[in-house]
Amino acid sequence: MIRPCESHHLVTMYEIINDAAQAYKGVIPEDRWHDPYMPLSELEHEIGAGVLFWGYEVDSQLLGIMGIQKVQDVTLIRHAYVRPDCQSQGIGGKLLTHLRTKTRDPILIGTWADATWAVRFYQKHGFQQVSVEDKMRLLRRYWSIPERQVETSVVLADPRWWAQQPRATT
């Protein structure tokens, strides 16, 4: 079952994020790695900033989470994590499919450039990576992240975003 996460899920969300984020250790730039990857205070800050988390639950156990955040004229998919022992079972895809129904806005996703498994996951679900110029512009406009993270990330966009882009003329 997919449902909104509630305050009593906070510690479980924290555990899922930090367990799943172990995949980033040694992959993302060393200066961007923290332990824990996302402190509880940062998770609370993200929720306070408008990230609405949804969870995938089986037998009352939260197995995966994904956030959605309306920012200006787009919707961002934020903080998508599945328990390591539950990955590759379609949970992330089900969460993403569900969240896509929650907005009519173009959807953007930012992730680490070197997290190739994450990039492939989003591409498999119809998102396309934007140009470096667009990435820089979009990350600075819609996200509040350090410049080093801007440099080492990619942005993927859904078909609605691409449909709004001006066509090159010849």
- How many distinct beta strands? 7
State the strand order across the main sheet. 1-2-3-4-5-7-6
What is the percent of helical residues? Answer: 25-40%
Distance between the termini: 49 Å
SSE pattern, N- to C-terminal: EHHEEEHEHEHHEH
Q: What is the CATH homologous superfamily assignment?
A: Gcn5-related N-acetyltransferase (GNAT)
* Quaternary structure: single chain
Mean pLDDT: 96
- Can you tell me the CATH architecture? 3-Layer(aba) Sandwich
Account of the protein in words:
The chain has seven helices and seven strands; from the N terminus they run βααβββαβαβααβα. A seven-stranded mixed beta sheet has the order 1-2-3-4-5-7-6, with helices on both faces. Strand 4, helix 3 and strand 5 form a beta-alpha-beta unit. The longest helix is centred in the first third of the chain and has 11 residues. The radius of gyration is 16 Å and the shape is globular.
How are the secondary structure elements laid out?
Layout: E1 2-4, H1 10-20, H2 40-48, E2 52-58, E3 61-71, E4 74-82, H3 91-100, E5 107-112, H4 116-124, E6 128-129, H5 132-142, H6 147-151, E7 153-157, H7 159-163
Q: In summary, what is this structure?
A:
This protein is 35% helix and 25% strand.
Pick out its properties.
7 helices, alpha+beta, 35% helix, Aminopeptidase, 7 strands, 170 residues, 7-stranded mixed β-sheet
